[in-house]
Write a structure and sequence with these properties.
- Helices cover about 70% and strands about 0% of the residues.
- By secondary structure, it is mainly α.
- It has a domain of about 70 residues.
- Helix 28 packs parallel to helix 30, helix 31 packs antiparallel against helix 32 and helix 32 runs antiparallel to helix 33.
- The radius of gyration is 33 Å and the shape is elongated.
- The N terminus is likely disordered.
- GO terms for molecular function: oxidoreductase activity.
- This is HEAT repeat-containing protein.
Length: about 525
């Protein structure tokens, strides 16, 4: 990298930097380059220093590059301490501290104290922002700055009105990142909540810039994993109702604009849309509630997590509330979300043992144990009582709980065999799902026999299992299902399985179904299966 910088002329390097910045969709590289050019005047020093700005660099990267040289040149640092960007100024202070062999905070305190009171705003503002970035008050930040630390902190606080005005002005900057940083720093400096700072600033600003104010609070909320709705509700005062409603109106309009993103076909896009709702918190309750019914489990899980955050309660508390009077479909997203939480095994087993809950919810809780990373070693013994429960839904849930285990684990094969012979179709279909998930190819014949079950759910599950564990010897039974079963769902599953197993007999059965089946969906699936086997266009 250094070798390239020495060979490329400054003008050509600037073109490269500008082009790269545009291609990457950002400006830090250009800002860094321009800052370096502004403060480093010696051509040879520029060649050694400004290359630090190349792609990926921050606006102050060149200062860090300068600080790595020996000796560290002082003139560019003195110039950089007047830069309009506080990050460059603070980087220059740190580099000068290294040059002097003192701490960063000592150098900062010296700068504040040595600047004339009439013109020390730049130094005081830099100190206030550096302290806020570190998550401390300016007094605490400068406490360890040596003998001048206390006096420097007093000077910074003495300029608080000027600092407040400067940072409030940045709340309305064109750059969104600048706005968010200014709000966070002003809140930290004044020891106030960001929403309080923003509401106070809005008192002297017209409604025409409300969208700018609202965006700054969103940035801060996103960085702190909070939400604008929660921040504003926590700071709400009756006298400020009008200002809060102005912000709510901005956020409501944004939420309306996001509606299409929540209904697109791509589940990854819907998941990103749900993630973007988190920053709105309670204001997005309606959208998040709707997302709980999404067809994709990851979208449902994320929506449940976001709703718990919006309510300001732990996920477990929200889940317990929601499943108390729910059926399995309503409880599903909350159970799915809990599968990745610490204590998930105890939560699911406790839910399954709660006889006040619906059997469907208890069974669904057992099934979610398969996605819980806790208690796998004792899983069989934990669910053993439910495998013999009088409620079929609990027996089925207990069988599904075993899908996260291997067939080598003691008790799994025995439990699967009992479930395949159970009198309840829910339990048998759960056992067939288990065969498929665990790829128990040695039990394909058992699945094929169940293609003749009296129950549609069992026949469908058997055909779906054979898609995973079926062999050529099972094609005849599947072809018979595709040709003769009265239920379209069973014929669809059989066609899919035949498309995976393949062979001449499978192709013949699929070709016949594609031409003659009375159900359009069966015809479509049969044609797709034929294409996978290399037949048709």
């Amino acid at each position: 990298m250094d070798y390239t910088v020495r060979l490329v002329s400054p003008a050509l390097l600037l073109v490269v930097l500008l082009t790269t910045g545009q291609q990457q969709g950002g400006t830090p590289t250009r800002e860094c380059w321009m800052s370096c050019q502004r403060h480093v005047t010696d051509p040879a020093l520029r060649a050694r220093t400004c290359g630090s700005c190349l792609p990926g660099g921050r606006v102050d990267s060149w200062v860090q590059g300068l600080a790595g040289q020996r000796p560290i040149p002082r003139a560019p640092l003195v110039s950089a301490m007047k830069d309009p960007d506080w990050r460059v100024r603070w980087a220059a202070v740190r580099a000068d501290a290294r040059r002097q062999g003192v701490t960063d905070r000592r150098a900062l305190a010296d700068w504040v104290m040595e600047a004339p009171v009439s013109s020390n705003l730049t130094a005081c503002l830099t100190a206030a922002r550096a302290a806020a970035e570190a998550g401390a008050s300016s007094a605490k930040f400068l406490r360890d700055a040596g003998p001048r630390g206390a006096n420097a902190a007093a000077r910074v606080w003495g300029r608080r009105e000027a600092i407040r005005e400067a940072l409030e002005l940045e709340l309305y900057a064109e750059d969104l990142a600048v706005r968010g940083s200014a709000l966070a720093h002003l809140a930290a400096f004044l020891s106030r909540k960001p929403a309080r700072v923003l509401l106070d600033a809005m008192a002297t600003r017209p409604e025409s810039v409300d969208a700018v104010s609202a965006s700054a609070l969103k940035v801060v909320a996103g960085r702190s994993r909070s939400s604008v709705g929660r921040m504003l509700l926590d700071e709400a005062k009756p006298a400020e109702e009008a200002r809060i409603n102005r912000l709510f109106a901005v956020y409501s309009k944004e939420l309306e604009g996001m509606q299409p993103e929540l209904t697109v076909a791509d589940p990854l896009q819907r998941r990103r849309a749900v993630e973007s709702l988190r920053v709105y918190g309670p204001l997005a309750m309606r959208e998040l509630e709707r997302a709980l019914g999404d067809s994709d489990r990851w979208v449902r899980r994320d929506a449940a997590r976001a709703l718990a955050e919006a309510e300001g309660v732990p996920l477990r508390t929200a889940a317990e509330r929601r499943i108390e009077s729910s059926d399995a479909m309503q409880a599903r997203p909350w159970l799915e979300a809990m599968a990745r939480e610490k204590g998930c095994a105890a939560f699911f087993l406790g839910t399954a043992r709660d006889k006040a809950l619906a059997a469907s919810v208890r069974g669904a809780a057992l099934a979610q144990l398969a996605d819980c990373g806790e208690g796998a070693r004792d899983r069989v013994s934990s669910v053993e009582p439910f495998l013999a429960d009088e409620q079929p839904l609990l027996r089925a849930g207990a069988v599904r709980a075993l899908s996260g285990l291997t067939t080598r684990q003691p008790g799994v094969s025995e439990a699967t065999s009992r479930a395949l012979g159970d009198g309840a179709p829910e339990v048998v279909s759960a056992a067939l799902e288990l065969l498929a998930l665990q790829r128990q190819t040695s039990r394909g014949d058992e699945a094929a026999l169940l293609l003749e079950s009296d129950h549609v759910v069992v026949r469908t599950a058997a055909a779906e299992a054979l898609e995973q564990i079926g062999r050529a010897s099972h094609v005849k039974a599947l072809a018979g299902c595709l040709r003769e079963d009265a239920e379209a769902a069973v014929r669809v599953a059989a066609a899919t399985a035949l498309g995976r197993i393949g062979g001449a007999q499978a192709a013949a059965a699929l070709s016949d179904a594609a031409a003659r089946d009375p159900d359009s969906h069966v015809k479509h699936v049969s044609r797709e299966a034929l294409r996978r086997l290399g037949f048709g266009q």
